[in-house]
Amino acid sequence: MILFTLEHILTHISLSIVSIVITIYLMNLLVHEIVGLYDSSEKGMVATFLCITGLLVIRWIYSGHLPLSDLYESLMFLSWSFYIIHMIPYFRNQKTHLNEITAPSAVFTQGFATSGLLAEMHQSTILIPALQSQWLMMHVSMMILSYAALLCGSLLSVALLVITFRKNIDIFSKCKRNNLQIGTFSFVELKYANKISNALKLKNKNFKAVRNYHRYQLIQQLDCWSSRVISLGFLFLTVGILSGAVWANEAWGSYWNWDPKETWAFITWTIFAIYLHTRTNENLQGSNSAIVASMGFFIIWICYFGVNLLGIGLHSYGSFALTSN
Amino acid sequence: MNTLNPSRTLNHFLLKSPSLQLKFETHDFNYSRKSNLGENIVCELKTPKNKKISKKIILSEGAPSLSGKDVVENEEAPLLIPKAGKNGGSPVLKFFKRAPRKFLSILANLPLAIGEMFSIAALMALGTAIDQGEAPDYYFQKFPEDNPVFGIFTWRWILFFGFDHMFTSPVFLGLLVLLAASLIACTYTTQIPIVKVARRWNFLNSAVAIRKQEFTDSLPQASVRDLGVILMGAGYEVFLKGPSLYAFKGLAGRFAPIGVHIAMLLIMAGGTLSASGSFRGSVTVPQGLNFVIGDVLRPNGFLSFPTEAFNTEVHVNKFYMDYYDSGEVSQFHTDLSLFDLDGKEVMRKTICVNDPLRYNGITIYQTDWSISALQVLKDNEGPFNLAMAPLKINGDKKLYGTFLPIGDANSSNVKGISMLARDLQSIVLYDQQGKFVGVRRPDSNLPVDIGGTRIVIVDAIGSSGLDLKIDPGVPIVYAGFGALMLTTCISYLSHSQIWALQDGTTVIIGGKTNRAKIEFPNEMNRLLDQVPEIVNSSPSKSEILNG
């Protein structure tokens, strides 16, 4: 019972910190960049990360198995993976554009997991026989880590596309327009807008050249980061799918069943393999590969949610349909 | 043209054949002492005899080159291949020689491969969108001709292309074969030559060339040797020759994509073997009965040959379930014994989900269960075995039921006791009017009185649903899995190369990397910060280095 209460407390703490962090982010981006506030928002992220870690550990202790058996837990884990990806550059004192992607993604996932789903889903469930295996930990954690990394990478690519194809960026009206936009990439854009406005203040003379230079540099960096993160996610995805196949051979008697979830994971894998291949060719690099990656973004969501929503196939546990029974 | 012109071949070979240069990979710092070595490669080339050279050249001819230019140049000297030398350059022969190469280069084309992957992905998506393996009538109704999906898509498409069984349809399999061919072609024509080039470690002797690299920097008052030591400390392979330095790291990252392709091919080969050479079968056996493996297994393809182990008899000793405190099933267990032809027990194991039995290539999985019978004492008579029948209800939980007639069994409306069970744990009893009477556990031996009839439920006999499989492809597929995991991990490594040149007291540094383009400059800056500055008081040192 203590553990239950503790879990509740942690959920509430993390959510309230997250809401503060979001407010700070928005203030930073829309009003004015205050360094102190930015730092405190980063500290808030660390605190939330610790809360979620504690939450997952508590769930692990009282349910007796890795908290990855249903949708709520997997969403929490996804959010946790986003936090991890967010924390690594933070602790290495690297300032990357990854932050602007990971922080909102983590926050949205967590918010969705905590408030968007039915309350009954939060209760820890028992493991069905097929899930009682050491492979559960390896397979599911790898898959969700890979989802997190791939989502980050493809979001960076989406941001790249937006920046590339928007020729004339009207800084101030854009701020207003993107205000309500939920897509996380808007943060990158705004960041970029901030940079430009700084440049505007400093160098009125050659504003255009500076702007183009900034833009070029930003695009380069986004490109590199997205490919790096995606290849990391691809690695996790490969390990995840293969461990899943080995597990399936232990539990269901076949390493590949063309089950919808399996098939979609394979489609995701193929799409990101295409992405990695487009990057090897100079003619196809840049926006072409970014388009492929943004396709991948939607395919991951189909793979993660879509298949479960339909509730078909062998991966149907952890879906909405099962919990409504 | 008809004689081996040593100077020409030598030249050719210097430029074209990367493989030969591997011979000179001596990680030797002594080079720096030989002051005017010039091209050290030339020195080495004096030793091999003509025979060797010609061999090597054939090799380089056989190995496809990186660019089209090389191909053309290589073909201008067909005399180097002994057979072709006799026939001269007949155009027919040339065509036959070129055709496979052209075919290869088409197959290895990246856009083609990407197109193949896209179409495979699209077909797979379609395969999950269309319900698989239904009768044709289903598709007639779901995709009618008068109301096509997206305006054109009707059942004719589905049945013509075999999209009702997408993952075994000729279109899909054909695409997979094409992709495999592309994989082979790409590995052969593109990747292996890239490796050869990558393994060629070359010094850059001009500051201009070094400055052309993606990352460049220059350190005044520094020594290239110190840089070499620091790079070695950072895990680089360092080569020094006179004032030039060449260092690289993560060469495996260049090789790994080949491994990825080979692993994919292994998996495909294993999958093919699985599809053509395996046996499958499933059986539901009540506890206490037995079956012969060969009766259950059905061949899957033309390569499926039965083995001796098919005569093995399997006896189901016991089937039981574990339950959570809440009453839900946590695990199914089946105690199996295997007997050979002589009736000797060769193996005994209790299997459960996730823990199959393996014997001589046969794997027995726990996949399903049902309740076969109830043992009941009626007024202390019996025990009677009442067969349980599965009942259809909404939801995915199983329910089994049976009926014990009471009174005159021959009358037109027989009444009796109904017994229902969801699992082997508890049986629910209803009387003649259908009213709930009670719940009994099979092992409790508590009697229940229904309309004067005393019923004791002795036991509930479950049957175990077993899947049997022989799959010769699994070891190959697993080898492919292992290789794929390993090589994908290695592929994450970035191949970094660094060149440096001592120019007076200044060291000019250039470097590039193929993957970690953002981390690389940071790492370089960190390393270059460590290079000690040479104080002017010792000019002799730099002189030694330069001399």
TrEMBL record, chain A:
Database matches in Pfam families: Cytochrom_C_asm
Ranges annotated as spanning the membrane: 12-32, 44-62, 74-91, 144-165, 229-248, 263-278, 290-314
Entry annotated with the keyword Transferase: no
Domain Cytochrome c assembly protein: 68-315
Membrane-related topology note: Multi-pass membrane protein
Gene Ontology terms for molecular function: heme binding
One GO CC annotation: chloroplast thylakoid membrane
Cross-referenced InterPro entries: Cyt_c_assembly, Cyt_c_biogenesis_CcsA, Cyt_c_biogenesis_CcsA/CcmC
Any one GO biological process: cytochrome complex assembly
UniProt keyword annotation of Transmembrane present: yes
Record key words, sorted: Chloroplast, Cytochrome c-type biogenesis, Membrane, Plastid, Thylakoid, Transmembrane, Transmembrane helix
Compartment(s) of residence: Membrane; Plastid, Chloroplast thylakoid membrane
Role played: Required during biogenesis of c-type cytochromes (cytochrome c6 and cytochrome f) at the step of heme attachment.
PANTHER family named among the record's database cross-references: CYTOCHROME B_B6 PROTEIN-RELATED, HEME EXPORTER PROTEIN C
Subunit-level organization: May interact with Ccs1.
The name this protein goes by in its record: Cytochrome c biogenesis protein CcsA
TrEMBL record, chain B:
Membrane topology type: Multi-pass membrane protein
Pfam families with a match to the protein in the record: ResB
Protein name, entry field: Cytochrome c biogenesis protein ccsb
Transmembrane segments: 103-130, 171-190, 251-273
Organism expressing this protein natively: Thalictrum thalictroides
Main location: membrane
ResB-like domain sequence ranges: 112-373, 441-524
GO annotation (BP), single: cytochrome complex assembly
Location(s), subcellular: Membrane
GO CC entries: membrane
Keyword vocabulary terms for this entry: Cytochrome c-type biogenesis, Membrane, Transmembrane, Transmembrane helix
